[in-house]
Amino acid sequence: MIYLDNNATTRVHSEVAKAMSPFLSDEYGNPSTGYDLGRRSNKAVADARNQVAEFLNSDPEEIVFTSCGTESDNTAIFSAITAMPEKRHIVTTSIEHSAVIAFAKAVLPGLEITELPVNEEGIISLEDLKAAIRPDTALVTIMWANNETGVCQPIQEASLITRESGALFHTDAVNAAGKIPIDVSSSSIDFLSISGHKFHAPKGIGALYVRNGAPYKPLLIGGNQEDGKRAGTEAVAQIVALGKASELATERLNDQGQEKLSYLRDALEQSLMNNIKGTHRNGSSRFRLPNTSHLSFDNVDAGDLLILANDKGLCIASGSACSTGTRDPSRIMKAMGHTDERALSSVRLSVSSMNTKQEIEESSQIIISCVEKIRSLRSDGPVIFSS
Length: 387
Ligand code: PLP
Description:
The protein has helices at residues 14-20, 36-56, 69-83, 98-107, 126-132, 155-165, 236-254, 257-275, 302-311, 331-335, 340-344, 357-378, and strands at 2-3, 63-66, 89-93, 112-116, 137-141, 168-172, 191-195, 206-210, 279-281, 292-297, 314-315, 346-350.
């Protein structure tokens, strides 16, 4: 099998699995207890907090462990709105993950939401942002990198504009973390979400960066864990895993990690563009994650391509993982102004540092042959593949 769907999730790194494994067996102490077994768990959580803080260049006490990226996003929005009840407006974008947009719409009644549009490249306008912020704006929440297209937003500039206007700034960095460097200390970010399973930790662990001094109200209320910022007995094994994955990601990024990813991504993209007529790249080629290629193939249903590629042992995505299973055109592609046809013919190819050059060459051959097959069958009339 060749796995090119690393924006959906990633394989757990062997060193991460090794680091967490004692906490799934002998080291089962509750970190809040006072005997040695519990103290060792407590220290493991503290060490992991240091590793995540180094990864984001924050202070350790600015890191709150959560159960996933969704919880981190929900918490940031809930916190900003609850800490400043007099402010009932938030600014976001038309391409956010549902963990941001659906939460804001469903759970916070009476909230006014302004969604910034994106251009054909998938990027917001800073002028639009300036115009959208009002005196009653509690929060601006803009994703760092889109999970589907990989397109990156001007987060430094957007966070600065927001800070100057007096609102709080959150970024969903779930799909950016581990692929590009993140340095919260050199930005005006108040809240930043990450999720371990996107960079070789297991599913079920995330973190929220909360800037020292930012107004904060917890979403989960109960015990005093996480310094009162997130109740619930710590998931020690998962937290240790997130720490180790953060350490490994820091090392990779310091060792030309971005260049290694873009080398693989570009080799694949170039091969497909050179060998398949009617291939279009979607979104900015300049401002995007180094691991992601989002392509449309004329006269190809991406759902069919997915099924045929799967039969040949290749995992790729059409739309984001959360919307796979429906044949609706991607709302991200629609927000970028693309037609239904182009959206329905688009695939996401996302590599990780675990992919090899050989896998990229094989993947390219598989996709080329699948596209040829779909097109040849299509020329004989409509064709529907079933999974
Ligand atoms: N935000 C983005 C950009 C994502 O890609 C995802 C997951 O696909 C999430 C949030 C949700 O993260 P999690 O799966 O950890 O809840």
